[in-house]
């Protein structure tokens, strides 16, 4: 397979393939793009709203100078035992007041509501409200975490960095280059290994109730090395960007010194998405040692196909190896037929 064949081919093929030569300029542009890869602004611009009480939360309501209202179970009991559970319909029961609708309220709104209702029985009540059990709002976690328990949203804003720290990433199994944060029906892909936009940027992203974090496993990270290499193979690695073109070729034993054409080293990218965008074919002329220096800076991605074309003499020898057996068979048949008729 030659570069001309990859690009020119049929009209349909050429419309689906874009040939790009690997040059120092290309590597500089790719490196700059990686450094400037922005965290989605929608994530950075989100600011947490005041916490709103929901079903399952437990509130501790203090009425100063009235311990019978503050700790009806007794002051010796733990705080949770004197807490008020918000029921599934968003209400809670409070002495003298009865059932109070608090679901969806902020802590300050709950305090004002309780104070206004109990004022009929207590003169100028001083009321304080705190949440002692956060059970209504969570962030869900899946994938290569050591701890995948849901994490509660509380009155203290929760950042992505804090959530990752609590969950503890499994470094041996996680694909840290593609953390997926799902929010409001949209998936945001974050590269935690990217310079300037990795785990440091995670400290500036606040999570909200209903967010889902998926950290994929790295068992599907592969580059396929084919063609005129010593050991064609699927080369595995942990994270996108972990392996270069030179390293991928090295793991496949390198170019076959007898059959390979050094100027026909290709990286085929995007072949699975031809319906939406043409595939890119990056070409490296690996006939000189300097070319491998370029290859050592070109980072391959999961799903890439590295293909090394055959030299012209190799292709001709293969054609001969296919034709000669057929020619020999035909010659033998002709000789046998001649002997039978004479």
Automatic annotation (TrEMBL):
Keyword DNA damage: no
Residue ranges of domain SLBB in the record: 137-212, 221-308
The name this protein goes by in its record: Capsular biosynthesis protein
Single GO MF descriptor: polysaccharide transmembrane transporter activity
Entry's localization field: Cell outer membrane
Keywords from the UniProt entry: Cell outer membrane, Ion transport, Lipoprotein, Membrane, Palmitate, Polysaccharide transport, Porin, Signal, Sugar transport, Transmembrane, Transmembrane beta strand, Transport
Cellular component, GO annotation: cell outer membrane; pore complex
Membrane topology: Multi-pass membrane protein
Residues covered by the Outer-membrane lipoprotein Wza C-terminal domain: 311-330
Keyword Ion transport: yes
First and last residue of the signal peptide: none
Pfam family, one: SLBB_2
GO terms of biological process kind: monoatomic ion transport
Major location category of this protein: membrane
Family that this chain belongs to: Belongs to the BexD/CtrA/VexA family.
Gene3D superfamilies named in the record: Outer membrane lipoprotein wza domain like, wza like domain
Domain Polysaccharide export protein N-terminal: 47-131
Species the sequence originates in: Rhodanobacter denitrificans
């Amino acid at each position: 397979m030659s570069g001309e064949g990859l690009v020119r081919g049929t009209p349909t093929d050429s419309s689906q393939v874009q040939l790009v030569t690997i040059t120092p300029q290309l590597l500089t542009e790719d490196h700059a793009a990686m450094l400037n890869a922005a965290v989605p602004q929608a994530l950075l611009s989100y600011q947490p709203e005041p916490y709103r009480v929901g079903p399952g939360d437990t509130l501790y309501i203090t009425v100063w100078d009235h311990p019978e209202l503050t700790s009806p179970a007794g002051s010796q009991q733990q705080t949770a035992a004197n807490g008020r559970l918000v029921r599934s319909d968003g209400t809670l029961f409070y002495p003298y007041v009865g059932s109070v609708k608090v679901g969806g309220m902020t802590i300050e709104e709950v305090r004002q509501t309780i104070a206004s209702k109990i004022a009929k029985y207590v003169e100028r009540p001083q009321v304080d409200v705190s949440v002692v059990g956060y059970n209504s709002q969570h962030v869900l976690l899946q994938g290569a975490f050591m701890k995948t328990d849901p994490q509660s949203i509380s009155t203290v804003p929760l950042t992505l960095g804090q959530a990752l720290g609590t969950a503890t990433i499994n470094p041996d199994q996680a694909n840290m280059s593609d953390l997926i944060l799902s929010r409001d029906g949209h998936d945001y892909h974050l590269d935690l290994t990217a310079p300037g936009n990795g785990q440091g940027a995670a400290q500036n992203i606040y999570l909200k109730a209903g967010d889902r974090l998926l950290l994929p496993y790295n068992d599907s990270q592969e580059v396929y090395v084919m063609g005129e290499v010593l050991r064609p193979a699927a080369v595995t690695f942990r994270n996108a960007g972990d392996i270069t073109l030179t390293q991928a070729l090295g793991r496949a034993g390198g170019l076959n010194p007898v059959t390979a054409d050094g100027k026909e080293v290709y990286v085929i990218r995007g072949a699975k998405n031809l319906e939406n965008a043409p595939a890119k074919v990056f070409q490296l002329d690996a006939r000189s040692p300097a070319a491998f220096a370029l290859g050592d800076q070109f980072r391959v991605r999961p799903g890439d196909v590295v293909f090394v074309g055959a030299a012209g003499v190799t292709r001709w020898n293969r054609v001969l190896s296919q034709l000669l057996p057929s020619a020999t068979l035909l010659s033998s048949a002709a000789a046998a037929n001649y002997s039978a008729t004479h």
